[in-house]
Design a protein that fits this description.
The protein is α+β, with helices and mostly antiparallel strands and 112 residues long. The chain has one domain. The protein has three helices and five strands. β2 and β3 form a beta hairpin.
Length: 112
């Protein structure tokens, strides 16, 4: 499982949300293009740092973390950062609008 906000591993929180879809179109001079429906069927998984940002209602911080972690994982997209930010913002705004309830801490898996 991965965090739905930053794509990092080890999400320990689940935020219930109504199902939603967001239409996204991203084109850049570097030739990167996304034309897709983004969304959620039941909610968002969150790692500890993203959970803290959600709880603080730090929307800009959450967008910045998502952008930064995704660019670290995909440096070929750095030129597209100005175009990626509004797509991430749109997706997360839909999360805030469709969120239903507090975050639910998930039980940690133990390895023997």
């Amino acid at each position: 499982m991965t965090c739905d906000f930053c794509n990092g591993g080890d999400p320990g929180w689940f935020y219930p949300a109504e199902s939603f879809k967001v239409s996204a179109l991203l084109e850049s001079e570097a030739g990167f293009r996304i034309e897709d429906l983004l969304g959620s069927d039941s909610g968002f998984m969150a790692c500890e740092p993203c959970h803290a940002l959600v709880e603080a209602e730090d929307r800009d911080g959450l967008i910045n973390r998502s952008l930064d972690t995704n660019l670290l994982a995909h440096p070929e997209m750095i030129e597209d950062a100005p175009e990626l930010r509004p797509v991430i913002a749109q997706m997360f705004e839909a999360f805030w609008n469709h969120r239903r309830g507090a975050g639910i801490q998930m039980r940690k898996r133990t390895h023997e």
